[in-house]
């Protein structure tokens, strides 16, 4: 039996580990035939949430067991989850101010256009939505009441409805995400988060010393990729800069560059340098159709140390593994697109969520199979920032 350990670190999401167990169970229970598998209920152990997936293929006698451990930090997310709409708007404006003043704009040119739009449209919406409502409503009211009264009333109405408008397009979640990452960049997210990340490094370090695992995968999604940098820096420092070949880190829909491109993120940059110099396997998957990530861009884009030698970056190629109608529908829903990394596709892919976490094929063979199926070279490539 092929035994795999997956240590999963989710993004800035208050729903927590049980939501991700439910999402995993949805993918596993949809498997059929030789791919059929079973999943256990989630259980808390040692502060984290654990579950197990087991399956196999009767035709060739292969079997596997994957032990998932969800690294819990949703309690800290809820602590940073600003609830008051107007408080959130004020914090958002402050975070944008810091970001704009500290960003390395030369490096930012490498970020895809869709990611730039997603990053800035919540801030633009905060400013433009009230003005748009004021212009339309004020014009209509001026037909009934004096203009000097109509437009201030319309502006007040625009300010009042802006939070509702932003919520409908998921901009409030993005604002919270931006505010939190601004704190991370300024090393101001709090001692509780620092201690939690150190405990995650402890867990991975201890797992590497367990001989039962054929493969160990540190799997992150979204904002979890940002938090993986201090964890990996800690881990590499403990283990002399080299990790075992059976270990891999995988970042799905990552956003490391959001902080890496800031001049004031000195502590984070120093940790990123340790990560870049490490010797280990790192698979980074990001889609150009997902504006909530920064795909196929060197995570060390502003650092003096070049990209990690073991880094492989690919697009998930959802269009190749999905029915055209399904793909079109998923692409229209930008919020759900960001979670498609955690779902199986219409046709099995070596590098979809099931391909990475379940089955008896280790990650290097999955990468090779993805390369063969798509006719692309996914070996570590030169940085796309050679022109910067």
Task: Provide a quick synopsis of the model.
The chain is of the alpha/beta class and 388 residues long.
Describe the structure.
This protein has 388 residues and is an alpha/beta fold. Helix content is 49%, strand content 14%. The chain has 16 helices and nine strands. Strand 6 (215-221), helix 9 and strand 7 form a beta-alpha-beta unit. The termini are far apart.
Shape type: globular
Helix content: 40-55%
Largest sheet: 9 strands, mixed
Q: Find the CATH topology of the largest domain.
A: Rossmann fold
What's the CATH class label of the largest domain?
A: Alpha Beta
Unreliable runs, pLDDT <50, ≥5 residues? 380-388
Q: Which structural class fits the helix and strand makeup?
A: alpha/beta
Count of beta strands? 9
Taking the alpha carbons of the first and last residues, their distance comes to: 48 Å
Keywords:
388 residues; Rossmann fold; 2 domains; 9-stranded mixed beta sheet; globular
Write the layout of secondary structure elements.
Layout: E1 2-9, H1 17-29, E2 37-39, E3 43-45, E4 48-57, E5 62-70, H2 74-80, H3 85-102, H4 105-108, H5 113-141, H6 147-168, H7 171-185, H8 191-208, E6 215-221, H9 223-238, E7 247-252, H10 257-260, H11 266-277, E8 281-285, E9 311-314, H12 318-321, H13 324-332, H14 334-337, H15 353-357, H16 363-374
Parallel strand pairs: 1-5, 1-6, 6-7, 7-8, 8-9
Antiparallel strand pairs: 2-4, 3-4, 4-5
Helix pairs in contact: 3-7, 5-6, 5-7, 8-9, 9-11
């Amino acid at each position: 039996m092929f035994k795999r350990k997956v240590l999963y670190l989710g993004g800035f999401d208050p729903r927590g580990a049980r939501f991700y167990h439910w999402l995993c169970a949805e993918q596993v229970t949809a498997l059929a035939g030789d791919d059929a598998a079973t999943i256990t209920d989630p259980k808390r152990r040692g502060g984290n949430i654990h579950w197990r997936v087991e399956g196999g293929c009767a035709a060739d006698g292969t079997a596997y067991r994957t032990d998932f451990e969800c690294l819990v930090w949703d309690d800290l997310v809820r602590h940073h989850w600003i609830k008051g709409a107007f408080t959130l708007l004020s914090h958002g404006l402050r975070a944008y101010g810091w970001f704009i003043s500290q960003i390395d704009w030369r490096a930012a040119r490498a970020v895809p256009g869709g990611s730039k739009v997603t990053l800035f449209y919540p801030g633009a919406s905060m400013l433009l939505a009230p003005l748009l409502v004021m212009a339309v409503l004020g014009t209509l009211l001026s037909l009934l009441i004096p203009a000097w009264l109509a437009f201030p009333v319309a502006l007040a109405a625009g300010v009042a409805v802006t939070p509702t408008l932003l919520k409908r397009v998921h901009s409030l979640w993005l604002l919270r995400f931006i505010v939190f990452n601004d704190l991370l960049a300024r090393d101001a997210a709090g001692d509780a988060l620092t201690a939690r990340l150190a405990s995650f490094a402890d867990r991975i370090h201890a797992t590497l010393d367990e001989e039962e695992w054929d493969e160990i995968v540190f799997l992150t999604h979204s904002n979890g990729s940002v938090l993986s940098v201090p964890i990996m820096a800690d881990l590499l420092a403990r283990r002399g800069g080299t990790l075992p070949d059976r270990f891999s880190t995988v970042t799905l829909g990552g956003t490391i560059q959001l902080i890496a491109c800031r001049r004031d993120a000195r502590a984070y940059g120093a940790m990123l340098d340790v990560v870049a110099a490490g010797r280990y396997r790192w698979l980074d998957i990001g889609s150009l159709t997902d504006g909530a990530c920064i795909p196929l861009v060197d995570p060390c884009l502003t650092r003096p140390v070049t990209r990690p030698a073991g880094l492989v970056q690919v697009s998930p190629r959802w269009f190749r593994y999905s029915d055209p109608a399904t793909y079109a529908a998923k692409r229209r829903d930008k919020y759900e697109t960001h979670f498609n990394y955690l779902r199986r596709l219409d046709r099995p892919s070596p590098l979809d969520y099931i391909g990475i976490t379940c089955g008896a094929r280790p990650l290097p063979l999955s990468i090779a199979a993805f390369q063969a199926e798509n006719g692309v070279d996914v070996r570590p490539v030169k940085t796309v920032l050679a022109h910067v």
